[in-house]
């Protein structure tokens, strides 16, 4: 029994010795088993805060979800700031001039651009000696109150052209303090919702705002705002003279009837019948049915 054990230990010793010699011969230094580490200790942990393309990170991460809630995802002493390089910073431009209720001049990087507001139309402002559309001057005054001296953000609409046929930029306008000017003018009753051709981004909101303004009697929707006198109930046809000197009459129900104010001092007239208006030299408005 002792002899068998001795033979076994001798074989094991020489086998181990041959293994060590082979390792040295190949230039590999064997490592003792006590030096080995478990596999999970050798693997690098996955980097949970990987750096997406277009982001810079330093310190604790504060992530912002779609609902606006912020969640801190780091724990180091210095905060991590994530900067979206692929999103341009919001730019604001100075209002140079308020032309009327729906048109402004804006300084865009040193170039003065005329901007026509998308989705609204205000009564036209004409020579004060010969007003044409009711509430035009009031609309212009309100626009000046809201925009004069302000800086605004300009928003284009992919559903609309970049410019109109007059070369004016077509934009939505929002002030630095967050007033959505296009919508505000409709809400306050100084502008009509206006769809030029194709539906636009905020069309439903603007239409709803006009309905609310009408229901409240705001601005130009107020009873008697456009000064129709009782004596004209039997002669409701409005004989207007436009800025080109053309004599045009508007019937109740025509698109511009409610906007048109008659100044008899400037030669404009009320007519009882279309025949009377035609005989006096007025023609029917082209958009009247």
Please give a quick description of this structure:
With 289 residues, this protein is an alpha+beta fold. 23% of the residues lie in helices and 22% in strands. The protein contains six helices and 16 strands.
N- and C-termini, Cα separation: 125 Å
Strand tally: 16
Write down the Rg.
Answer: 39 Å
Runs with pLDDT <50, length 5+? 32-88, 126-131
CATH fold category name of the largest domain:
OB fold (Dihydrolipoamide Acetyltransferase, E2P)
Provide structural commentary:
The chain has three domains: 54-87, no CATH class; 93-221, Beta Barrel (OB fold (Dihydrolipoamide Acetyltransferase, E2P)), CATH 2.40.50.90; 232-284, no CATH class. The relative contact order is 0.09. By secondary structure, it is of the alpha+beta class. The chain has six helices and 16 strands. Residues 32-88 and 126-131 have low confidence and may be disordered. A hairpin with a 2-residue loop joins strand 6 (93-100) and strand 7 (103-108). It is elongated and about 145 Å long.
Characteristics:
single chain, 289 residues, alpha+beta, OB fold (Dihydrolipoamide Acetyltransferase, E2P), 3 domains, four-stranded mixed sheet, 6 helices
